[in-house]
Known about the structure:
Blueprint: H1 2-27, H2 34-40, H3 55-71, E1 78-84, E2 87-93, H4 94-122, H5 128-143, H6 146-165, H7 172-202, H8 204-211
Antiparallel strand pairs: 1-2
Helix pairs in contact: 1-4, 1-5, 3-4, 3-6, 4-5, 4-6, 6-7, 7-8
Amino acid sequence: MNTIISILAVVLIIGLVSGGVTWFVGRRGQAARRKEVARKVATRQPITFRWRYTALPVTILLLSLVITAYFYHLLPGELAYHFRNGAPDKWLSRGATIAWLLTPQFLFTLLAGAIVWGIARLSAYFPPATGQRVEKMLPLMGNMIALPQVILGFAIFDIFSYNTYQIHLMSLWAFALVVMGVGGIILGISFIFAVRRLWTRGSPTGSVEERQ
């Protein structure tokens, strides 16, 4: 289960990055607008929670449940869950294996929902312009939790496929590296564009353009 622990560590890092970006966005312009925020906060409404903010984590969770339901009656009582050089070297009972694989999927989905819900509630305390920027970033913050879920989903399908049809697709680490690499590039580009927009809007030139 070292792979699952590693994935949890990656999710923790992603959560910290999300929190850092959220803090950075909220910090921008806070000192200059503190009095205005204190006057309007009582009447300002938080961002409305929308399911599209967590669409990917929920979808991957449902797909994992469908895969488990399909393979459940085809699986033997003992499942090979760890492989070395393409051959299994560790086994676990069917119920325990399914619990180990599905529990993180539920936790990741709840984490995505908690991040979105928490930021949405805190948005009532942001300046109006900052709240609009945060709302645009919520789909990224909530759906990026799907990155480790994709890896776990592959692990579920690979383990079930081997124990049912003796077909081992590929090494989990190889698949994880591919997913993390592609996902890291996408997230990096998204964050660069988001921060660049914030700096542009926060600069004097950007402020004049927005007023026009």
